Amino acid sequence: MEPADVTTFLPKDKLRHLVLLSGLDVVNNPFHKAIYSNFQTRSLAPDCCPLTYKIFTPENIIEIPKLIKNQSRILRFDWPLKYTHIYPAAIVLFYDLNWSTVNWEEKKRELETKIDALRNVIQKDGKPYNKGTQIILVIIQHNEGVTKEENDKLCNPKAAEILSLVKLKNNQLFVIPDTETTLYNFILRLEKQFYELTPIFYQECIRKIRSRNIPNNNSILLIRQQFKLAFLSELRQDNHTAMRNYKLAYQKCAELDMVDRDAYEILSVASVINYKICQLSFQNNLIRESFTQYVKHQNTFFNRKCGVYPDPYIAKIEFNLWKREQCVLFAKLFEKAISNGLLAIIHKNPGIYYQSAAEFQRCANIYIKEMLATISYNENNVVREDVLSFNKDLSKTHTIYFGQRPWRVLTDLMPDNVFDNSHEKSALLTLQSKILPNYQQTIQLYNIAMKHFEKFQAHRFQTRIKSQIADELISSGNYKQAQLYLYDILMEYYKSRNFVLTQNLLVKFLEIAFLNANLNDYIWAISQLSSSRQYTFLTVNVSQHTNFYTHNLISLFQGVIPAPLKSGVIPLIDSELNSIFGKWQQTLSDKPIFKINLTGLVCFLEVSVSLTQLSIENEYGNENCVLARVNIFNDLNCDISFGKLTLYIEDCCKVPSIVTNDVLENATLKLYKNDIIIEKNSRKSYFFYFNPEKLSTTFLTNNIQIESLVLSGVSLTKTLVNGSFHWDFPINDPSSSVVIKKRQLPLDTTILVSSTIFYFGEKFLLPINICNSSKLKELSKLECTISLSNQEINQVDIKADKKIYLLDPYTKTKVSSFVQIIESLAIDGSFLLNVQFDTDKPNDFYIHLNIKSSDDNSSFFKSFKVSTIQPVKWNCTIVSLANEILNQITNNTHSMIQFDFETCTEMVITSVLWNLNSYLTPTSQVCENYTVETYQSLELSSILSYLITFIASLPFGRDESINLGKITLSWKRPSTTTINNTTIDLEAFMFCGDKEQTLTLMPGEIFENCLTLFALTAGRLPYPKLNLSFVDESNTEFPKICQELALKSLPTRIFVMSTGKS
């Protein structure tokens, strides 16, 4: 039997109070219909009170007859239904009545009659719990022709008169106008008032249940009482009390002794209580408690013995189906909590529970299959289908309990647990005849689990589930679909380089291929199983396995039917084997031709390819030749040979993602080799040479690759089955592709300087020696192009703001590139190329040298990295004669300029020349020339200072800023005699950032630039000026106006204070 359905016993959604609406004529009265429609609309709103509204009719009051009860059973099947669909928590009477009506007395008596009729209905015998049902009166007033003041005067006395007459309290009487515009607001107020009154009914029910005297040793009655208290507390929205009572009921249920005959009912009741605990925990955001309860439920009941009633196999099947149902119920609760905002993670999501449910269903299918194999049907056995369903006539006289077996409603009432053997046997036979493996449900549960894992990109979980689906499909006999799943899993394993798990899947794939007598699929699988690398991580006899598969593979080539594997994946009897052999005989008799794609697979043939461009020098020059190398390793324990090896080479841009026969036929280049023989357990290499420039068909691009490799024509003794093995290679794979370059000119280059780091003051000259390294040919008419670039290989123009230029060797003008022609270059001859450049900024850049031959078929490229930096790091300060830093310069007073610097390379100072501003009169030596004996030799990072005294004679009131002047250092490198002059401005600031920029401003655009200034001296210093220049000089006045605005926007001076010595 399928497990008892919890959702038919309990309401699916949140529990609601039942409210019956009386006195509404929804057919003839539009306003009454509007009232009922608004109540129904409110019940569907997300913010509504938990109330259910129904129209009060005589059918609502169901007479529940006295039924025969069985006190040994736990929960009545229809008990929750009474409080959600039968017993109302409140009855609302709608009555049309105006305070100023003429026939007031007649209306009062009619109202009193209606109220008394409702009281008589809910207080009839047989309804012990309905005394708490609340009667609510809602008066609908029209008030036509009556003013509001008159109506208000009549309201209080008339209402008091009605309450006294019908014996209702003040909170049970409400008045609403009959205007539809304000009706919805009144409905909202009525809903809140109803919700305040309805819990009284459930509180009265709880009080009566608690008042019953129940022995503490009667676990069944205690479970029943605690469940009822919990359910009614949940209806009252007292979730804390409901949770406590549910847990007490669950604990008592877990302590029950599970007799085989009652196990089905106990498990069903435990399922209901566990479901309610988990549901309330999720609803109250007690997430951890819900998972704790479910784990407790598993530990308590999942590990129990299943028993032997009504049959050992049936007991196992029912127990696994029940466990499946528990996983599904919890997974659905988990899904609903996620839809309400709960965050799931990869190791805790509904997919895990759906997967567990599928595994339990799969176990049940296995037991069902075993049971059906052991059953022997007898013609005398009578199958009665009615014993598996409840008799409607019986349910009118006897109480039906949740989890009770249908055929035991009467037998459970027999004294001393006596039961009818024939009746039990008939029920067992009916169960055995009706129960069948439900493979479709298993696969459906696996698919649901896989969708959840897909959200978290849990590929390993998905792959495992696909493997389980394939096994279930094999069990169900759907071999075609199972084969598709197995192929998909194998491809995923090969892509992730996970070869450990492929062997078991290949065995299943091979079994299905053998069963279907499919030649291509069989050879595809056995080609992999015959390789010893498939068993690297398996503790099996490798040679035994590989010899078996190799023998089957070779035999199949020779037209012999392969031997069955007998792995147990698909158990076959002799008659089925004979049928399969017949299919193979028919397949082989047609002399089929197979085509197997072994790309990326671990199989008995390991193939690798490579493309390499070679440069072969001869008397005519250098010729480009492409070498294609093919390596084939035979992993079989026997020699194997093929008639032809074909190599297909194509442009990379033309290689498709899937290579078909049409693609191979239209390949640009096809290379062949015949009589391919590969010895056992050995590797053999084959070489193909071709010149792309001398082919009859040309490639579109220089980027070519090996598209496919085909081994065709198996050459064995008595070969009857033939075909080809294919390998396709990925696009732009480095091993199987090559970029064909032009012939390389036989040239060598050498830089004739020790370093490519240049210092300001030196002559920026890079001498490059170009040598002909050919031993056979003299070179002539070589075109040398020299250019500047920001990258080593790619030609990227240098930005204009870096101000780096080449100097044309003939005109000495600044250019970005120039061309030098080498007329001839003899064998072992050389040519000196002097590359001179100019810059006034520290920079790193590359000088590119491109050399082309006169026929433009060969070339040479080389790049040189060049750096330009300052030879010294310096600092300039103004000090007094007492060596104190001055904040300001005083006219006609002796002061000193102190120039401190640190060398960035080894140098020899030959002279120092001061060139001060005209307003500063030097009073010490301006030029210091050193003799050879007194040259100042400085090492790297040496520190030196120079001083000069002066008298300032600035004009009075002059606000213009002035520079201190310049200093020129004459120096040379220790290894040369060339004197270099480095001139340094004695500025008041050091700048960090671009001091000069070229920009384009669109209308409305804003440009911002940030410069960091480091004051080299203290005092009132001149503020740096902003100079603007324009490319378009057609309007001469506009630049002047912008320059004046720029100067006015900035201060002229800045005061810098000295922090003193720290």
From TrEMBL:
<dbReference type="Pfam" id="PF11817">
    <property type="entry name" value="Foie-gras_1"/>
</dbReference>
<dbReference type="GO" id="GO:0005737">
    <property type="term" value="C:cytoplasm"/>
</dbReference>
<protein>
    <submittedName>
        <fullName>Trafficking protein particle complex subunit 11</fullName>
    </submittedName>
</protein>
<feature type="domain" description="Trafficking protein particle complex subunit 11">
    <location>
        <begin position="265"/>
        <end position="529"/>
    </location>
</feature>
<dbReference type="InterPro" id="IPR021773">
    <property type="entry name" value="TPC11"/>
</dbReference>
